[in-house]
Write a structure and sequence with these properties.
Length: 328
């Protein structure tokens, strides 16, 4: 019996669910799951997850006491909600969940370190080993330095909003566990910049970028894992078959599951080892120079941080409104 594309992909790549929707995770049985502020905000508005939101708000009120202001309760619940979703997800999957540091801290190394430690402490207090959690941090220079400190403490990190080779090399040189290059957002930028409606999968700028990063890592023996993210179509996914991991939205997981055909491996460490690739070293000055010279990475990193920050603001309002309703 012919296997569908999702089954074949799982044989060569770790498939990760890119969602906060617990029902979708149950359906597609990924090993790992990733969340971000936009996904948590969306999930928090779904009726089936209202109990998670309400329980988090009630626990925050209990912790702080009746005298605490609504703003204080919302602030504590906000800090805890992503972990609340993460704990539910970890009841379903066998692997790791990624939980994101507040995007508004992306240029503050010390605050990012503190928040990463706090998130891990919440998981450990709930009985979850830190080996089952990846702390997601935006791949700014400051974020990478924060992740380097956390990694030395045994806290594994997932560097997100990654759009360029300079970010990827800096992560690898600092011993980061995993990176999430954003395939679809790179494609979005190039389509807008060039006026093109589409790219063939093999020529897709996001696919080309992740392929370059993967080959660089395997050529020079870096342990940092590559997890392609933010896909716009199935063609981007099949062109990256063989990547260490791919985090995929439920709609595309469903499309892969419903499609039969041969899925050849496109990324292979043995092929990468034979490639002629120049080795680079990235210090802060080089990072900033390469970032400034890459308008796509410059635009998309800033846009991504801003988008996640707005999602967090929407989540804070949602929690405030829900608390007012619960305590009316």
């Amino acid at each position: 019996m012919a296997k569908n594309l999702l089954e074949q992909l799982k044989a060569m790549t770790v498939v990760v669910a890119d969602t906060g929707d617990i029902e979708a995770i149950e359906k597609f049985t990924p090993r790992d799951a990733t969340t971000n502020p936009s996904l948590i905000t969306a999930a928090a508005q779904m009726p089936q997850y209202q109990a998670i939101v309400d329980d988090t708000l009630k626990a925050a009120r209990t912790t702080l006491g009746a005298a605490a202001s609504a703003a204080e309760v919302v602030s504590l619940a906000f800090d805890r909600l992503a972990v609340s979703f993460g704990l539910k997800i970890l009841e379903i999957i066998p692997g790791r969940v990624s939980t994101e540091v507040d995007a508004r801290l992306s240029f503050n190394t010390d605050a990012t370190i503190a928040k990463g430690r706090d998130l891990i402490a919440q998981y450990e207090e709930a009985g979850v080993s830190k080996d089952r959690v990846l702390i997601k941090i935006a791949a700014t220079w400051e974020g990478i330095q924060a992740a380097a400190v956390l990694e030395k403490e045994g806290i594994h990190c997932n560097l997100t909003l990654l759009f360029g080779l300079h970010q990827a090399i800096a992560c690898a040189e600092n011993g980061i566990t995993l990176i999430s290059p954003f395939v679809g957002r790179i494609l979005d930028w190039y389509k807008k910049d060039t006026g093109r409606d589409s790219y063939a999968p093999a020529e897709d700028p996001g696919v080309v970028s992740v392929t370059e990063i993967y080959n660089y890592y395997k050529k020079f023996g870096y342990k940092t894992e590559v997890m392609g993210a933010s896909f716009r179509n199935v063609g981007e996914i099949t062109e990256l078959a063989g990547s260490d991991l791919l985090t995929i939205a439920p709609s595309l997981l469903a499309e892969l599951q419903a499609t039969e055909g041969e899925l050849p491996r496109k990324l292979d460490p043995e092929n990468a080892a034979t490639m002629a690739i120049e080795k680079l070293s990235i210090d802060k000055a080089t990072f900033e120079s390469m970032h400034a010279a890459n308008p796509m990475a410059t635009d998309k990193l800033a846009e991504g941080i801003d988008g996640f920050a707005k999602a967090l603001e929407a989540l804070e309002k949602l929690l405030a409104d829900r608390l007012a309703s619960l305590e009316a």
